Amino acid sequence: MLYGITLNFYYKNKATYTTFNDIYNAVRNYFKGPEYKRGILIRWNAITLKIVIIKNKSKSIGDCL
């Protein structure tokens, strides 16, 4: 079953593909392809302790680590 961003991707692109294999390959390429990996890496590298502390104001610094 699809959910989250995978389900959104499917609904946005379902008219483009006619067979199950086409849809499977599109989803696999989107989530395993270099663009997706690069985007995840950019988001990961943008995480800082300061951002984590701001998002978790009720937690101690030790918990944020």
Tell me what you see in this structure.
By secondary structure, this protein is mainly α. Helix content is 69%, strand content 0%. It has 5 helices and no strands. The two termini are 34 Å apart.
Shape from CA axes?
elongated
Q: Order of SSEs, N→C? A: HHHHH
The average pLDDT value, as a whole number, equals 87
What structural category characterises the helix and strand content?
Answer: mainly alpha
Oligomer: single chain
Rounded Rg: 17 Å
Strand fraction equals under 5%
Number of helices: 5
Poorly predicted runs: none
Give the N-terminus to C-terminus distance in angstroms: 34 Å
Helix content: 55-70%
Sheet having the most strands = none
| Count of strand segments | 0
What tags apply to this protein structure?
single chain, 65 residues, mainly alpha, 5 helices, 69% helix
Task: Provide the fold topology.
Blueprint: H1 5-13, H2 20-32, H3 34-45, H4 49-55, H5 61-64
